[in-house]
Amino acid sequence: MKLLIVTAIAECRNVVGVVFERRGIRKYSIVPISGVSLEETRQLTDNWFGGPSGVDRFESVMLFCFTEEGIADAVLSELEHFNQEEKPDFPVRGLVLPVERSI
Questions:
Q1: Dihedral angle, C-alpha 57, 29, 23, 4, nearest 10 °
Q2: Interacting residues of 28 by C-beta distance below 8 A, sequence separation 6+
Q3: At 16, phi and psi to the nearest 5?
Q4: Which of 35, 88, 96, 102 could be disulfide-bonded to 58 (CB atoms 3.0-4.6 Å)?
Q5: Does residue 79 contact residue 6 with C-beta atoms inside 8 Å?
Q6: Per-residue pLDDT tens for 51-101?
């Protein structure tokens, strides 16, 4: 079992939801988050939340669920493809963590 975590700006929430649904993820959690960076950066891609550093907060969401490794990998691959094709100013980010124990 894996913990799949995806972060995106609020406007991309539906894109991630469609990918989850297409990959068979029917139950997941969504948490609103505000991205803040206090470092100055020269490129938008160097800034996790995009935009001018330390100037604004960006309304984002974190979507997460427990799923099988193959499904998590497929979701990340599809979201990576989305980032490459659409080239959003605020790329969707994702990661997969191992679940060593659960109750």
A1: 70
A2: 20, 63, 64, 65
A3: -65, -40
A4: 35
A5: yes
A6: 554 456 778 999 999 999 999 999 999 999 999 999 988 899 999 999 999
Q: Reduce the secondary structure of 8-52 to three states and give it as a string.
A: EEHHHHHHHHHHHHHCCCCCCEEEEEEECCCCCCCCHHHCCCCCC
Tokens standing for 85?
């094709």
Neighbour-count burial of 26, counting CB atoms closer than 10 A to its CB (0-12 exposed, 13-18 middle, 19+ buried): exposed
Residue with tokens 């605020």: 90
What are the chain's domains? 2-98 (3.30.70.120)
Amino acid residing at 67 = T
Answering whether pTM is above 0.90, one says no
